[in-house]
Write a structure and sequence with these properties.
Elements (H helix, E strand, L loop, with lengths): L7 H4 L9 H5 L6 H18 L5 H4 L2 H10 L6 E4 L6 H9 L34 H15 L5 E6 L6 H12 L5 E6 L9 H9 L4 H16 L8 H16 L4 H4 L3 E7 L3 H11 L6 E6 L7 H5 L30 H15 L3 E5 L9 H6 L4 E3 L4 H13 L3 E7 H4 L3 H9 L6 E5 L16 H5 L6 E3 L4 H13 L5 E4 L23 E4 L5 E6 L2 H12 L4 E4 L2 E3 L3 H10 L2 E9 L4 H11 L5 E7 L9 H8 L3 H8 L3
Amino acid sequence: MNVYEMSEKEQYPLLSGIEVPNDLRRLPVEQLPQVCSELRRFIIHELADNPGHFASSLGVVELTVALHYVFNTPEDRIVWDVGHQAYGHKILTGRRHQFHTNRKLGGLKPFPSPEESEYDTCTCGHASNSISIALGMAVAAQKLGNDRRVVAVIGDGSMTGGLAFEGLNNVSSTPNDLLIILNDNDMSIDRSVGGMGEYLHKLHTSGTYNRLRDKAGRLMYRWHVLNDDRKGRVLRFNNAVKSLLTNQRNLFEGLNIRYFGPEDGHNVVRLVETLQRIKAMKGPKMLHLHTVKGKGFEPAERNATVWHAPGKFDPETGERLIPETDQPQPPRFQDVFGETLLEMARQDSRIVGVTPAMPTGCSMCIMQHEMPERVFDVGIAEGHAVTFSAGLAREGMRPFCNIYSSFAQRAYDNIIHDVAISRLNVVLCLDRAGIVGEDGPTHHGVFDLACLRPVPNLTIASPMDEHELRRLMYTAAQGEGGPFVIRYPRGRGLLTDWRCKLETVPIGKGRCLRKGDGPTVVLSLGPLGNVADEAIRESGIDAAHYDMRFLKPLDEGILHEVARRYHRIITIEDGVTEGGMGSAVLEWMSDNGFEPEIIRLGLPDRFVEHGTPAELYKIVGLDKERIIKELKGH
């Protein structure tokens, strides 16, 4: 009998009986390794057919099981830092039977969400926020007089983020009993970089210290020494002994956070023992675990970056199932960016690349491979990436700072304060702009246009195709007009012959794609212009079409021409309608005394959930059929 003919009970003897964590807690601790094995196998087989974030969740299987075994969830709180790690958590907390719908339209959400389960303590799609949120929960528990335990699980490179350090600083100075678990796998999506990653890699405790600490800890816990007002003195004594025996004092203990580890994050029995021993200790604590991203699946262990989100694959052989096609495929926008950046960098020594932990995700790895000294991966630190770029630009370099659109929201102040006010020549490239699909509302890049449009000194552009992306990048590299924002989508474009000549385009100037003698004109911004063009051709309506190309400055020449010739204006953009291009056109018409009918198509004033891009564009009314309907005036 092969695995596909077996019942769930036969395939997963223990896991099939776990509907909620209380079921897990009824098992003897000796059976937990088998639970971990079954959970890991379940994740592998589910994600082989329904793709998602793979390697991160495999790396925390033992930790997930141990946490739900030791802590009384959902009364006790587990705060996950980035939901990439939380598939095992979802499966153990009542969602195993629905897990095949994960990331699908109407199915389980891609990341933990309190809207979905009482076991999900907060929304976590981005990085570095767990310590701050968990500290708030821990302080609230104290103020409300309950004995709820709070655990923050931070890893996958999140400790490099500034918010994590801000949280640590507050943890050290605010009375709390928070437990921080550092899942140290030496990885984010790409390999972790920077001093913190190197520090965690080298951090160790001696065998002599561990034996002494464990014996003293058990005695002090038995004598209630660790639970009374003398805990501060005991903690300082512990740190002093550690410094004496290991000839080091680590960062966390320097902040008066009790430190344990590093320990093997894949020994579930040992993890349970450790967590049971430290969970009742008063004061802030950190448990440092070494884990392997992709643990238990050899191809993912060998290449965790590729297996972060590998798509469909054969769970037995590890072969990735990439759809075959006889037709040449257009490149991804990110690859056009990466190739063009390298091409320009070969010609201009001022050009450097900056990215917050996404060289592979944004294809800056293409330049990094040939010119490693001119590409700076600053870790998960979007604000720092922008301000670091400002310093480079101040001294005459031409930095291309690439950040995913939704992540750039975390650097909004830096864009204004450090770049825009000083009119520095930073090129801010916003990848994954617009609807991104299955990752849902934490990742859709739909706010950048409305957020950045009011900021003085910015040039904001969006290319309709790959040729336009190359021309805008080249224009940004040549100019001296201050910060230049270029936003472009996830996925493939339209052109297989994408490598056009590099040439500048006039800043603030759009282009007429189609003249029309009817009363209607379409003004589009970005790749949705291609959908608009198809809609016009199929509708039979004699409508004009302009690719605005720039949100800021708007092409006032086009707007004057449009206002004089057409009665109906349809604006189309891959961003929120509140404050976006349609709003800018509406404001300009009002300011200049024109009163055409204006229909604004864009994202509605609500968070858009997850699904395929095609499904979501239809839901929000940015598909070809909706545009045809508006062209016909229905």
